[in-house]
Design goal:
Helix 1 packs antiparallel against helix 2 and helix 3 packs antiparallel against helix 4. It is built from 4 helices and 15 strands. It has one domain: Creatine Amidinohydrolase (Alpha-Beta Complex), CATH 3.90.230. Strand 14 and strand 15 form a beta hairpin. With 261 residues, the chain is an alpha+beta fold. One magnesium ion binds next to loops.
């Protein structure tokens, strides 16, 4: 687990600000009738216009047999994560919930963030799923302090879902980030407090609770990327890149006007 230098932290703070801006523009572009490919094109344009690079495009995660073909991951309703926006584009409909997951590289420094947003008005159950998952991220961030352990983050996230009826997706979780898209440690969204690697000042982590409305079981589509719920229920995902400082934890990818985390 790497601790970032002061110079690296400064770059990552700038990278996070840029990603927060792009994600908030994408959030505004989500409406009925918009295609997932349009969102992907917009994400790539906004990142490149600012002089940065998309970092999912062309990236081959561990276990994948081809590079990811887009800038943005767009996961609609029962798609959990890593939905490909530009190969079989979907058109968003009123009431859908859509996960937008985006990473960028600013002068070689990488940050990662995701939101799930409703397309127009959605139902109460979908709102509860999104609210609970967003709250889990907030609680996970609050547990990310020097002297705590990775298990404290995991436990805080898990606790947020207790009694909700929603299921945590156990195969997926948070990770270190900064010099690469995925760094050590893996951060499960469930676990025991007081266990796991020690958190230190200067660590940069992507925390990302992911939960299903129904059962936890997942299936990966034939495209090799798209995770779906097996039972067809909807799924939500929120992610921030954070920097653990001595006295506070900075949310690097906070969006303009964001109040919830
Ligand atoms: Mg992400
Ligand atoms: Mg991530």
């Amino acid at each position: 687990m790497t601790v970032k230098s002061a110079a690296e932290r400064t770059k990552l703070i700038e990278a996070g600000k840029r990603l927060g801006l792009v994600l908030s523009e994408l959030e505004k572009a989500v409406r009925p009738g918009v295609s997932t490919e349009t969102l992907d094109d917009l994400a790539e344009k906004l990142i490149r216009d600012a002089g940065d690079e998309p970092c999912f495009l062309g990236y081959t995660p561990e276990g994948a047999d081809r590079p990811y073909p887009a800038t943005l991951c767009v996961s609609v309703n029962d798609e959990i994560v890593h939905g490909i926006p530009n190969e079989s584009p979907r058109t968003l409909s009123e009431g859908d919930i859509v996960g937008l997951d985006l990473g960028l590289s600013h002068e070689g420094f990488i940050v990662d963030s995701a939101i799930t947003v409703a397309v127009g008005k959605t139902d109460k159950a979908a709102r509860a799923l999104m609210d609970t998952t967003r709250d889990a991220l907030r609680l996970g961030i609050a547990a990310a302090r020097p002297g705590n352990r990775v298990g404290d983050i995991s436990h805080a996230i898990e606790t947020a879902f207790k009694g909700s009826g929603f299921s945590i997706v156990k195969q997926l979780g948070g990770h270190g980030v900064g010099a690469a898209v995925h760094e050590e440690p893996f951060i499960p969204n469930f676990g025991r407090a007081g266990t796991g690697p020690l958190l230190k000042e200067g660590m940069v982590l992507a925390l990302e609770p992911i939960a299903n409305e129904g059962k936890a079981a997942v299936a990966v589509a034939g495209d090799g990327y798209t995770y779906r719920t097996r039972d067809g229920s909807r799924s939500a995902h929120f992610e921030h890149t954070i920097l653990i400082e001595k006295d506070e934890t900075l949310i690097l990818t906070r969006r303009p006007g964001e109040t919830e985390s």
